[in-house]
Known about the structure:
Blueprint: H1 3-15, H2 18-25, H3 29-43, E1 48-51, E2 54-57, H4 59-80, E3 92-98, H5 99-116, E4 121-127, H6 130-138, E5 144-149, E6 155-169, E7 188-191, H7 197-209, E8 214-218, H8 222-230, E9 235-239, E10 250-252, E11 258-267, H9 273-298
Parallel strand pairs: 3-4, 3-5, 7-8, 7-9
Antiparallel strand pairs: 1-2, 5-11, 6-9, 6-10, 6-11
Amino acid sequence: MNLRQLRYVVATADHGTMTSAAAALYVAQPALSRAVRELERELGVELFARSGRGVVLTPVGEQVVHHARIALAAVEAIEALAVTRPDGRGAELRVATTAALEAELTGRLLPRFARDQPAVRVRVVRCGGREALTSVVRTGRAEVALTDLPVPSDLAVHPLEHRELVLVSPPGLKVREPLAPAALDGMRLVLPARGGPHRAGLDALLARIGVTPVPAVETDDQDSWLEQVRQGAGSLLWYRGRLEDTQGLVVRSFTPPLSRTIGLVHAHRRLPPVVRDFLAFAKEDARERRGEGRVREHL
């Protein structure tokens, strides 16, 4: 038994799938699965049972994870006694987020930061919602969080990206202009697959404005979304800056605008150097992305 195996087991319990746990820990999923199986063989017990597309702890698995958390917390407390060197060795960065935004971290931001700061150990703390996320930040279980804004005023806020939602439709779609959000009620839409992080964010927005569109196509294959619109399956509700080739289609804004602002938040306390470095890195990354978006708009 080793600490790596214990970390993998705890991460799998927290994320519900080995794939998500591996992404949060920046390891290959087969390596994580192999380590968990090795621990099960060593202990002679089954820690996880299959449940739908994920896994759940067995009764003995719950006991193992309970003791593993205690052991890992003790190790982290010991590691925290070490003085962080100027080059960042020994530092740890814990970033909280929700399932809807986890891909933002694991897909681009954290891998790039990890390449720039290879000595820093990065951990993702996944939260069930914004209320849980703000609690994690307030109590110090994560130094910083990526979330939708606004958040309660007792947290420090660093906006990163303002995203406008637009409607992409075939030329023949007849709708009133200017386009009101209420027009989405009953409209046929090409939507992300149910259960995925992209769909959760859109469903929350649609519920907030009180509309119920008709799912025409439901898929996470983003490369096919615009083609589905071209074929007349339905319209697409998506972020303006994330659309590639809309030639031959009609892109409409909403009045009032439908938008989403994403940012980093943290408690009002003195930040460790690694957190300040991450904030600066994230802001620079956001500026680069805005620049890339402006270039695409002029092509």
